[in-house]
Design goal:
By secondary structure, the chain is mainly alpha-helical. Helices cover 51% and strands 10% of the residues. The protein contains four helices and three strands. A three-stranded antiparallel sheet has the order 1-3-2. Strand 2 and strand 3 form a beta hairpin.
Length: 68
């Protein structure tokens, strides 16, 4: 499991994008800690985020287009 900060670092994106993608239900965390509210992501979500970033950066898909 990876924290939000670690996922952002591994994928080369900002820490603010990860919760935003979660808010719009584009990238759901694997686990949310009950006491702290920290979100954790598995390797599966890491791959999905990389796919989202590729669509956004290289193919210029908007976030709205990726959702639909």
């Amino acid at each position: 499991m990876y924290s939000t900060e670690r996922v952002a670092l591994l994928c080369g994106t900002s820490v603010k994008k990860i919760p935003y993608y979660s808010k719009i239900r584009l990238l759901e965390p694997s686990f949310i800690h009950n006491e702290t509210g920290y979100r954790y992501y598995s390797y599966k979500e890491l791959e999905k985020l990389q796919y989202i970033l590729i669509l956004n950066l290289f193919y210029h898909f908007s976030t709205k287009a990726i959702i639909t």
